[in-house]
Amino acid sequence: MNRTQRRKTEKNLKKIMTDKQLKNLKEDISNEFISKKVEERFNHTWEKFGTILLETMREFRISQERINQIVTTAYNRLEEELKGAGKNEGLSKCSGNE
Predict the structure, then answer these.
(1) Which structural domain, as residue segments, surrounds residue 70?
(2) How many domains does the chain have?
């Protein structure tokens, strides 16, 4: 949506919504956009990391079963960590920003 369309839409919404409702709507849209971007970045990073991790474990002759366990555990922990980061938790512990 370009700038003109955005302004027109906002003007139309102001006619039917209170300022508070409009503000909440903007926040919801922004949060949804941020969540989507974080998820895309997470998936992209996981694909790269997962490939590197598998290659490294194969070099050290770790069994396929053990590789699957390690990758699943790492994925679940990383996913939980990122969910916590969305609530101003999680990754801040690792970076020392608490």
Answers:
(1) 3-95
(2) 1
- Secondary structure of residue 88 in the 3-state scheme: coil
Give the global pTM.
0.49
Question: 17-46 burial by CB neighbour count: b if 16+ within 10 A, else e?
Answer: eeeeeeeeeeeeeeeeeeeeeeeeeeeeeb
Nearest-angstrom CA–CA distance, 61 and 17: 62
How far is residue 72's CA from residue 37's CA, in Å, rounded to a whole number? 23
Longest dimension (CA), the chain: 66
What span, in angstroms and rounded, lies between the C-alpha atoms of 79 and 73?
Answer: 10
pLDDT 10s per residue in the chain (98 long)?
Answer: 788 988 888 888 888 888 888 888 888 888 888 888 988 998 898 889 888 888 888 888 888 888 888 888 988 998 888 777 655 544 444 444 43
